[in-house]
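Posted in: Protein Modeling Q&A

I'm a second-year student putting together a small comparison for a lab meeting, and my supervisor asked me to include a predicted structure for alpha-glucosidase. I've never done this before, so apologies if this is the wrong subforum. The sequence is pasted below exactly as I got it from our records. If anyone can share the structure token output, I'd also love a short note on what stands out.
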Amino acid sequence: MKGIILSLVSIFAIFTAGSIIKQETDRELEWWETTIVYQIYPRSYVDSDGDGIGDIKGITSKLEYIKELGAGAIWLSPIFQSPMYDFGYDIADFYAIHDEYGTMDDFDELLDKAKELDIKVVLDLVPNHTSNESVWFQEALNGNEKYYNYFVWEDGVVDENGNIQPPNNWVGV
Ligand SMILES: *[C@@H]1O[C@H](CO)[C@@H](O)[C@H](O)[C@H]1NC(C)=O
Ligand SMILES: *[C@@H]1O[C@H](CO)[C@@H](O)[C@H](O)[C@H]1NC(C)=O
Ligand SMILES: [Ca+2]
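Accepted answer (user: helix_wrangler)
Welcome! Here is the predicted structure, written out as tokens:
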């Protein structure tokens, strides 16, 4: 009896799963649901100039290979200007390419080549916070009201030695 109930339950489960899948495929799929995305961590990908750090020209040099693998998009971990206390997740300038990775011209070249090969380029944008070295943050500290409003402010906390520390739980390096 137990066996029959269990089988009925699994048949029902299969039936339900089947109709969910069917419902899902009745709509037009978006490109990101059907495209293979190749994620690149630029710093350790390809170093084009031998300074030991991966860079944008290195990525561009591999686009044909990536295409051959069947990918239709690349996703780049952060490439924006950063003091790299948090390996690029601490963005100092959202309008600039990190100098160790190259220049805006290098990035334009990457986009041109990607377009030619019909590869989409997805950038990892981190809007949650900026680096403490961001122009916006520095302007805010200097009393520029526009940039002051870009941030949520809290008083610093006093540690056991009586020193003022940032009011967050970020563990710096
Ligand atoms: C940004 O904020 C979102 C939402 O709170 C969080 O899930 C994500 O982990 C945050 N990302 C970073 C890099 O801080
Ligand atoms: C930013 O934070 C880092 C890491 O905590 C610190 O070493 C650096 O001096 C800070 N820079 C500024 C401009 O506050
Ligand atoms: Ca390099």
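A couple of things worth pointing out for your meeting: The longest strand covers residues 93-97. Residues 91 and 130 are 5 Å apart (CA to CA).
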